[in-house]
Design brief:
With 204 residues, chain A is an alpha/beta fold. Chain A is 28% helix and 26% strand. Chain A has five helices and eight strands, in the order E-E-E-H-E-E-H-H-H-E-H-E-E. The chains are: A alpha/beta (204), B mainly alpha (230). At the A-B interface, strand 5 and helix 2 of A face helix 1, helix 4 and helix 5 of B.
Chain lengths: 204, 230
């Protein structure tokens, strides 16, 4: 992980159509930092994460990606990010192992890492099960496995622990903590705080 | 953990292709629908036209090209629907600098699972439409040349309907202006073939159309896909 990495949100205004959800928010995330964003449903948490991920455009403001996670114009180097949304980007007809093998190739990682992350995410028993047959909680664990597989510096997590039991919640907390210790950066939209050292940002 | 990933477009295309092909083959035979539709359309057309040899030969190019165009359109209407629904497209757009490899992989999957089977089956139907076997094989070769342009049109329609969140069948209408020239010159080239000339002005225009589509259409497809994520 690169210790010079820094992500700056500069007066970002978030909206959906005509509605302005978040007015001029600014914060900085450095290597080893985690920010947990709390707020009611519809408060703009997911939209803010999608803006940081580059999928949505803000109404106003700018995001600067500095150091190894950005380029010379401080635009995002997409290959430094992992984005966990509400959905599970996996093919239901393919097994857990096959889905992760796909992501391993997409992330240019060796296929032999797949077995390790399956175990870390607590999915060993379901490894050969079609992902369409997984429970909602297991699907969130599969997303954790994808994060671990990618080994990227910036984790953008949108409600990663929804539908998870307490052990799954603890597992995510532990892995985000380990990620921080290695110099990773995490921005987490959540209703239930992870047990990590973080700054908490409450949206109105 | 400090390893950096450097993904080549080729690896991305191969990974996406393998995933789409594997899930298509496992998902209840959906990939077979294109061929099935083409076979039904062409088979019924033979009976509808009747036994008169001259009429069969005259109507074959138009009917078989139309059958291929409709089969490709109908089989591609939901091409991107699953990737939108399960978040794959959002994830790829967030984590990768370009969606080009994704587009190329989709094209390759349709070409392999739809165009190739149609081109393999087509000679049989041309023979049923009173073509001699040698001409039937050449006519199938014309499908291989012209159908990639139809695939691009189908992908454009699928991307636009997914991006605009309209019905997939309605979205097929978006690509009509792109399909019509391919039909005109594909049918024209096949008619010339039945008159004894394989290389014809129509064939050359068909090739040119395909090349132009390869340059012009993909950026619109990617734009439509990104628009759909907003």
């Amino acid at each position: 992980m690169n210790s010079d990495a820094q992500l700056e949100l500069d007066n970002i205004t978030v909206g959906r159509g005509e509605i302005r959800l978040i007015e001029a928010i600014s914060f900085t995330v450095k290597a080893g930092d985690a920010i947990q964003i709390l707020g009611e449903n519809g408060s703009g948490k997911s939209s803010l994460l999608s803006i940081i991920a580059g999928v949505l455009t803000p109404i106003e403001g700018r995001i600067n990606w500095r150091g190894a996670i950005g380029d010379e114009n401080h635009q995002c180097n997409r290959e430094s990010c992992i984005f966990v949304g509400h959905d599970t980007p996996n093919r239901p007809a393919l097994s857990v192992r096959e889905n992760l093998a796909y992501w391993a190739r997409i992330y240019a990682k060796k296929a032999d890492r797949v077995a390790g992350v399956i175990e870390q995410a607590g999915l060993k028993r379901a490894a050969n099960q079609p992902s369409g047959q997984l429970s909602a909680g297991q699907k969130r664990r599969l997303e954790l496995a994808r994060c671990l597989l990618a080994g990227r510096q910036v984790w953008l997590l949108d409600e990663p622990t929804t539908s998870l039991d307490s052990s799954g919640h603890d597992l995510w907390s532990e892995q985000v903590r380990i990620h921080q210790e290695k110099g990773g950066m995490s921005i987490i939209a959540t209703h239930k705080l992870l047990n990590i050292q973080s700054r908490d940002l409450r949206l109105a | 953990m400090s390893e950096t990933s450097s993904l080549s477009s080729t690896s991305f295309i191969r990974a996406q292709f393998a995933r789409d092909a594997k899930s298509a083959l496992r998902s209840g035979g959906g990939w077979f629908h294109t061929l099935y539709f083409f076979a039904m359309f062409a088979g019924f057309s033979v009976f509808a036209v009747g036994p008169e040899r001259a009429l069969l030969m005259a109507t074959a190019p138009g009917l078989l090209w139309l059958g291929a165009a409709l089969a490709l359109q109908l089989s591609s209407v939901d091409l991107f629907a699953q990737d939108y629904a399960d978040g794959t497209l959002r994830t790829l757009a967030a984590e990768h600098p370009s969606l080009w490899p994704y587009f190329i992989a989709k094209f390759c999957v349709i070409f392999l699972l739809a165009v190739v089977p149609i081109a393999v089956l087509a000679p049989l139907y041309y023979v049923l439409f009173a073509f001699d076997p040698a001409s039937a094989l050449k006519a199938a070769l014309l499908f291989m040349i012209g159908c990639p342009a139809l695939v691009l049109a189908a992908i454009l329609a699928a991307a636009m309907s997914a991006g605009m969140r309209t019905s997939g069948v309605l979205g097929a209408g978006f690509s009509a202006p792109v399909i019509v020239p391919v039909l005109i010159f594909g049918v024209g080239a096949t008619e010339r073939l039945s008159a004894g000339a394989f290389i014809s002005p129509e064939l050359l225009i068909l090739c040119a159309l395909m090349l132009v589509y390869f340059v012009v259409l993909p950026p619109f497809v990617i734009l439509a896909l990104r628009f759909g994520l907003e």
